[in-house]
Amino acid sequence: MVRTPTVEDVALRAGVSRQTVSNVLNTPTIVKPATRERVQQAIVELGYRRHAAARQLRTRRSSTIGIHLDPYVGGVSGVVLDRFVHALTERASERGMRMLVYAARTAGDEIARLAELWEGSEIDAAIITGTFHGDPRTRWLGEARLPFVAFGRPWGEDDLAAPEHLWVDVDGAAGTRAATEHALGFGPRVAFLGWPTGSGTGDDRERGWREAMAAAGAKGPRWTTEEDVARARAVVAGAGVDVDAVVCASDSLAIGALLAQAGGSARVPVIGFDNTPTAEALGFSSVEQRPEDVAAATLELLMGPTGEAVTPRDVRAGTAHALIEPRLVVR
Asked: Domain map of the chain by residue range?
């Protein structure tokens, strides 16, 4: 009986790793042309048939959901995603599913890793984070028919009315709107400290501040900085704190705004976003994203209210997303 060639056979014939073969099969543009040609030649010589092999493997369920582990960047960032992954693991276990955490530094690397896990029947579904407009991961997942939900909306013009895929997100505008309405209690001049324009999440949070200010007939400056405590401190210190309060796009920026006022005789209230342990320790108000609720909604979209269905679902307006409203924690 002739044995069916495998990915390992192709890798051995081409003199490359199994991962490189997977890259050629799923994301060929990230592989050097010479290497790609060598792998493709090995595939022809061995008569490897990817889709037939994949179908045989996928007849076995793994009862496992893959999720990307973001690289550690230090500071106060990442707390929300850590809580999200922890909550996912607990709730998936209650449904008889496991979570498989994988690492990848770029979207291309993540696609290659997902392809390897999917082809090897190591996962039945995937959850991705950090979505952005034109995200290649969502396109590949759809084409591969790998069931998935994104923590983060598509960020297209029609992402609410006619989403392209299943997603759960936090209503950032609602959070900063509540924060701004609270800040207006200290006076009409409320500043917003946010990220440069072009970030879907950042623009959404800025929108909430603008809407609340417009509704109150108030005006305040908009300060811009990268997600960095030291830079945020420099921006606020350079601008001068001639405001009644500051609403920030993150707790990291809020810490910078607080440090800019250190030693001053008149400190104005600062409100952050994420409600990290640092916000609690330093005693400033912050918007709580409720990652546990995001995790519950993610699994319900992926598997239904009580079942374990992880087959690809049709995406229909009104049923394909969940927008979680955050809450303001006042201190």
From this structure: 7-57, 64-168+291-325, 172-288
